[in-house]
């Protein structure tokens, strides 16, 4: 039977009319996901949050800024990258939300900003309400650890573009810092010390290399027990990103801090260089720490040379603080009191005829 022409000469579809559901978008499932996530979003709040989940925009009472003489708003956005595929294969979704918060808020705190609030964006091929709620649970828990509020977000269903089990996440955050307390390269001086803070593992960067090495080259499976890890490969790869925001803010209250550097994509040297003035140089001694076994595994399994590893992975350092020498002891004590493994990894000198802002010397400690 031929199609019956419709207005404009476009053939009418046979059978029942088209619908959003027939196109693959399940509004009811989305509503169910919102109901499930509400309990977690309520936990990630601050007194300045106005209203609840469900509005078109999240509201934050900006009168809190009146206590600042010249408040500077800081903004950051990020995602989790291909680590989401590890979560998908493992069927574990809440740790990815934790990773997302760490990637965003620890970029904010680098300039000395206190994270105030976040929003998230979750894109899925098909809404599985419990999975979406689990992702939001992790985001909310991460916000609690960072001292910020989760004021809203968006869940988008993209059938035809993503598979039914595929998803991606992104987030944006806003913080505030007093202008006179802004941290950065302009404060760094020759003679300063560089303090390293240990990472919890790979964090959320370099997973395209890691996945290529362990899956394509080594042929390992996520359920493989790895003696060096004391758990499976998948459990190691899903270790959540450490969130340093409150630790860094505490450090600014007890010690003089000149700059922070969040060690993410690009590795230690490239990220630290972002807060080193053109006239100065940061020398980092590899012997001051030993990267965790996951870094050694990636290097050996993929025959990845050290320079490639160091420009891709954090190599066991997730955050760095640059402080004057007289603040080193109190800084290390503050971090130790907060359970942060930290050490002096190097120092700042005049650059002289060096072309690089940062150099790593020696071999990693045992």
From TrEMBL:
Similarity comment: family membership: Belongs to the AIR synthase family.
Classification lineage: Bacteria, Bacillati, Actinomycetota, Actinomycetes, Kitasatosporales
Pathway: Purine metabolism; IMP biosynthesis via de novo pathway; 5-amino-1-(5-phospho-D-ribosyl)imidazole from N(2)-formyl-N(1)-(5-phospho-D-ribosyl)glycinamide: step 2/2
One Pfam family of this chain: AIRS_C
PurM-like C-terminal domain ranges (all copies): 189-353
GO molecular function, one term: phosphoribosylformylglycinamidine cyclo-ligase activity
Keywords: ATP-binding, Cytoplasm, Ligase, Nucleotide-binding, Purine biosynthesis
Name assigned to this protein: Phosphoribosylformylglycinamidine cyclo-ligase
């Amino acid at each position: 039977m031929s199609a019956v022409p419709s207005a404009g000469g476009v053939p009418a579809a046979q059978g029942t009319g088209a619908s959003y559901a027939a196109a693959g978008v399940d509004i009811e499932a989305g509503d169910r996901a919102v109901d499930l996530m509400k309990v977690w979003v309520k936990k990630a709040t601050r007194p300045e949050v106005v209203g609840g989940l469900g509005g078109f925009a999240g509201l934050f009472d900006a009168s809190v800024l009146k206590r600042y003489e010249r408040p500077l708003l800081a903004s950051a956005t990020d995602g989790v990258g291909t680590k989401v595929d590890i979560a998908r294969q493992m069927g574990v979704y809440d740790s990815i939300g934790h990773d997302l918060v760490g990637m965003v808020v620890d970029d904010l705190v680098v300039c000395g900003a206190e994270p105030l609030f976040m929003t998230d964006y979750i894109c899925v091929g098909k809404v599985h309400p419990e999975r979406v709620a689990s992702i939001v649970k992790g985001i909310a828990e991460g916000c609690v650890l960072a001292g910020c509020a989760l004021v809203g977000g968006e869940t988008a269903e993209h059938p035809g573009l993503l598979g039914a089990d595929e998803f991606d996440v992104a987030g944006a955050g806003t913080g505030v810092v007093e202008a006179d307390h802004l941290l950065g390269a302009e404060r760094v001086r020759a003679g300063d010390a560089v303090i390293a803070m240990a990472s919890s593992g790979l964090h959320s960067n370099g997973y395209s290399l890691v996945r290529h090495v362990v899956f394509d080259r080594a042929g390992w499976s996520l359920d493989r027990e790895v003696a060096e890890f004391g758990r499976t490969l998948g459990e190691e790869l899903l270790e959540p990103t450490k969130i340093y925001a409150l630790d860094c803010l505490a450090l600014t209250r007890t010690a003089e801090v000149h700059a922070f550097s969040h060690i993410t994509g690009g590795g230690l040297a490239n990220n630290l260089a972002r807060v080193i003035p053109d006239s100065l140089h940061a020398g980092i001694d590899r012997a001051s720490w030993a990267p965790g076994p996951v870094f050694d595994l990636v290097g050996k399994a993929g025959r990845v040379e050290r320079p490639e590893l160091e420009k891709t992975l954090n190599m066991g350092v997730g955050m760095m603080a640059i402080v004057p020498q007289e603040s080193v002891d109190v800084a290390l004590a503050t971090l130790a009191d907060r359970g942060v493994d930290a050490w002096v990894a190097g120092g700042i000198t005049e650059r002289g005829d060096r072309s690089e802002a940062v150099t790593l010397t020696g071999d990693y400690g045992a």
